[in-house]
TrEMBL record:
<dbReference type="InterPro" id="IPR041698">
    <property type="entry name" value="Methyltransf_25"/>
</dbReference>
<feature type="domain" description="Methyltransferase">
    <location>
        <begin position="47"/>
        <end position="136"/>
    </location>
</feature>
<keyword id="KW-0808">Transferase</keyword>
<protein>
    <submittedName>
        <fullName>Methyltransferase</fullName>
    </submittedName>
</protein>
<dbReference type="GO" id="GO:0008168">
    <property type="term" value="F:methyltransferase activity"/>
</dbReference>
<dbReference type="Pfam" id="PF13649">
    <property type="entry name" value="Methyltransf_25"/>
</dbReference>
<keyword id="KW-0489">Methyltransferase</keyword>
<dbReference type="InterPro" id="IPR029063">
    <property type="entry name" value="SAM-dependent_MTases_sf"/>
</dbReference>
<dbReference type="GO" id="GO:0032259">
    <property type="term" value="P:methylation"/>
</dbReference>
């Protein structure tokens, strides 16, 4: 039922059991992100974009001294997140039209970018840029492309093919792709909206046999004074 629904309706259906599925961001990724950010603060307010059931709140609650906020467009996912973090602020909104202006010092996102087509990401990044205070940081972990000889490469490629066929023959579409968010393109898009984008290897999460990292952390910093 989830696979044949829209993204929003699908996650409403999945929400009660989402944390027990492999789709939830693993604690190892959340922990590695928190460790990598520990020396980049201090941060006051935090924002988890496409928060789902609240995986990113572990990062924000450990690093932010002020209010932390989660935003998602699935009411079901927000209900699960609210029960886990009752003291946080929760906002239901489309991430492509975020209702915040200079509201956070640190913004994070986990496991969401496969749900946005490349043409939709500029609006997403512009909204996050607007939501950050001058000097604020937006960061997210992203899996590095596995080697062509990796089973994971072919498994994710096959998944993308199946989803494209599904979306070609069934409405509403369910957007979820693994191979539409290459790191160079993401950095270029972040730079285009005003961020200074860099990457660091999340070595806590291991490397492939060729020595390349399994995950990278993208760090997008808003200038201390907005040139606009």
């Amino acid at each position: 039922m989830q696979a044949l629904s829209s993204v929003e309706r699908g996650y409403d259906l999945l929400a009660p059991k989402f944390d027990h599925t492999p789709f939830r961001t693993s604690e190892s990724i959340v922990g590695a992100t928190a460790n990598a950010l520990a020396g980049l603060g201090p941060f006051d307010r935090g924002l988890d974009v496409c928060c789902g059931t609240g995986a990113g709140m572990r990062v924000l609650s450990s690093l932010c001294q002020g209010r932390i906020t989660g935003v998602d467009f699935s009411a079901g996912m927000l209900a699960q997140a609210r029960s886990a973090y009752p003291d946080a602020r929760w906002v239901r909104a489309d991430a492509r039209a975020l209702p915040f202006t200079e509201d956070a010092d640190l913004a994070v996102s986990f496991g969401a970018f496969g749900h946005f087509l490349p043409a939709e990401r500029p609006a997403l990044f512009e909204g996050i840029y607007r939501a950050l205070r001058p000097g604020g940081l937006f960061t997210f972990a992203i899996a590095a492309p596995p080697p062509l000889t990796s089973v994971w490469h072919w498994a994710t490629l096959g998944f993308d093919v199946v989803m494209r066929v599904r979306n070609a023959v069934w409405r509403p579409p369910f957007v979820m792709y693994y191979h539409t968010s290459p790191v160079p393109a993401l950095c270029d898009e972040l730079t285009a909206v005003g961020f200074t984008a860099t990457t660091v290897d999340l070595t806590d999460l291991g490397r492939y046999r060729d020595g390349s990292p399994r995950y990278r952390l993208i760090l997008a910093r808003k200038p201390p004074t907005d040139p606009l």
